[in-house]
Specification:
The protein has helices at 4-15, 19-29, 38-45, 49-61, 85-96, 98-108, 119-122, 141-155, and strands spanning 35-37, 65-70, 73-78, 111-118, 129-137, 158-162, 172-177. With 189 residues, the chain is α+β, with helices and mostly antiparallel strands. Strands 6-5-4-7 form a four-stranded mixed β-sheet. It has a three-stranded antiparallel β-sheet with strand order 1-3-2.
């Protein structure tokens, strides 16, 4: 496996020097249905509302985010009609290393029915722990766990694998499905 993801994430960090902007891009572009309002995002990121407001305004003015009012709060969400939406979505997923991890799992793990991203990354939070749900017939879980340890070193992130649906999870992004082999469907639960 190449070190492309590690090199790529370093390039993204130098391209986007604002850590707040990078967090916002991850939040809104890892999953199109992710949304948030100023104070909630500030609490989630543990940052000041002024820093979040400045970045939200710039991303909205550039057309990357849409804003709308609901219940006396102004919400922000990715503008999926923006010409660069799909490029940003791919960029964020590559930065997180999720796409390369899924490709590696699919190429060497037998009959996989579905691979889903769970947890913080499914909510758009770069917490450092990638949670993947892998469903399939006759999976080699021992091999997949060994593989996840190797990928942890390459991606510099912790990887938690699930081989059956956890009892509690709020959101998921289906990265691969037998029914949708290109992984074009996003789903929030």
């Amino acid at each position: 496996m190449s070190t492309f993801v590690t090199q790529y994430s370093g390039m993204l960090d130098t391209l986007i020097t604002s850590k707040t902007r990078l967090k916002l891009l991850i939040k809104f572009f890892v999953l199109s249905t992710n949304r948030g309002y100023l104070r909630g995002i500030a609490e989630e990121f543990n940052e000041s509302t002024n820093a979040i407001r400045k970045e939200l305004n710039q991303l909205t003015e550039a057309g990357y985010l849409l804003k709308y009012q609901k219940d006396n709060k102004i919400y922000y969400q990715a503008n999926t009609n923006h010409p660069l939406y799909h490029s940003l979505n791919h960029l964020v997923r590559t930065y997180l290393g999720v796409d390369e991890l899924v490709d590696f799992v699919l190429s060497r793990s037998g009959k996989i029915n579905q691979v889903s991203l769970l947890g913080d990354y499914a909510r758009g939070i770069d917490s450092g722990t990638i949670e993947l749900l892998i469903l399939g017939d006759s999976l080699d879980s021992v091999y997949l766990l060994q593989l996840s340890q190797k990928m942890e070193v390459i991606l510099n992130k912790q990887i938690q694998l699930y081989f059956e649906k956890p009892k509690v999870f709020l959101e998921q992004i289906i990265l691969y499905s037998e029914e949708d082999p290109l992984g074009l469907r996003e789903e929030s639960i």
